[in-house]
Design a protein that fits this description.
Length: 64
């Protein structure tokens, strides 16, 4: 028996579908720089090499 596909419902009533965000984590490096990373990265390795985003380089902050 095949699993039934979950029905997608539009958000905000505009017919726009949003798949949801993937799990993320925030870390602070030894210099006090905040990094936004996919959940499961190794905090003891280089964040940039693990495709994390340096928060100061993003177009928004947590206070926006």
């Amino acid at each position: 028996m095949k699993a039934k596909k979950k029905e997608k419902k539009p958000i905000l009533g505009h017919g726009i579908f949003h798949p949801g965000a993937r799990p993320m984590q925030v870390f602070v490096d030894e210099n006090g720089c905040w990094w936004l990373c996919d959940k499961g990265v190794d905090p003891h390795k280089n964040f940039e090499k693990q495709n994390c985003w340096r928060c100061r380089d993003l177009a928004f902050t947590r206070n926006d």
